[in-house]
């Protein structure tokens, strides 16, 4: 399958020194991952053990109407719980019992830790074990932390999937396990491509329903669709599964390389591979070329947010003609993103973690054409004349595989077009009078966690 391997640059970023930042950071907490996980896992329920602030965060992020029946909720810790005047474990048992009586469709229940439950050292693992015994076999109860003390934005999904791995059934069968939550329509496209290549059987984590949960064992090989699944990768490897390293399936090149790595693992011949991929590859290349016209030659600066930054920078620089000035990520797991680093030409600063004030200084000094950052930084930077892209949209929008490649490029071209229009309307100054009048920089941490 070597002829499907992308041609790396003369000097890639695999050995580029990484700037380690350890300071104030701007990022959502891991509770946010519930917003896409509860849509994916159709008979699961996510119960956050936290404060009213946690509840407001989830309600606002999900846009849930008051009469909706979402698959998540918050068990509110009151003052008596926080002060140790009530037995929080007993109260949690009562909340869960009422929830399961009202929602008999629940098959998996996740107790999700938050900042308040972490602070009072509420042992949710013990609670999960106790509740599993009480409600088995109808319901399995698991726990993980989405606390802003312990997790950032996408680490909530990582912690959730990692909590599931130890209880997956054992198997000796040779199977492909695809790991990472994708929108159903994108997952169906992926499964169709793998089936056309003759790769079977294919299991998915997380599964849409509990009866479809995969098994895992020493003959399991797994491919990641999301680059933020470091803990899940480690737990799967402890179960004996083996990771297939590959660039992530963003854009035509990344998708082809991801599929080619799986094809090589399962001995798919070049003719079969071409038959399955040539048509969607051609569509993706044509669609990207049209959208990328507004991106070629533009510079981009990534603040750390979602851990998607390195694969996205690879896509934008190689397939859309952009120049990356700095690529920041909350964590850089070279075992996972190494293939993307190898394909990205040497040049950008690679930074891990964040010291937001120092990074803001570097962004202002470099004046990129487009800055990818969190909500707390975007508006103030726009007021300073910098075009921005909300990082959170890159997680909530379908962007993987061939059919979404042009949509992914469009997420970056649209803010540049908008910025250009506003600049023309304001006489050459983006942001305008109102922006200059209200352009206060948000204090570090204001975007913050629940």
Automatic annotation (TrEMBL):
Enzyme class: oxidoreductase
Co-factor binding comment: Binds 1 [4Fe-4S] cluster per heterodimer. The cluster is bound at the heterodimer interface by residues from both subunits.
Domain Nitrogenase/oxidoreductase component: 29-406
TM stretches of this protein: none
Function statement: Component of the dark-operative protochlorophyllide reductase (DPOR) that uses Mg-ATP and reduced ferredoxin to reduce ring D of protochlorophyllide (Pchlide) to form chlorophyllide a (Chlide). This reaction is light-independent. The NB-protein (BchN-BchB) is the catalytic component of the complex.
Quaternary structure and partners: Protochlorophyllide reductase is composed of three subunits; BchL, BchN and BchB. Forms a heterotetramer of two BchB and two BchN subunits.
Name of this protein: Light-independent protochlorophyllide reductase subunit N
Organism of origin: Rhodobaculum claviforme
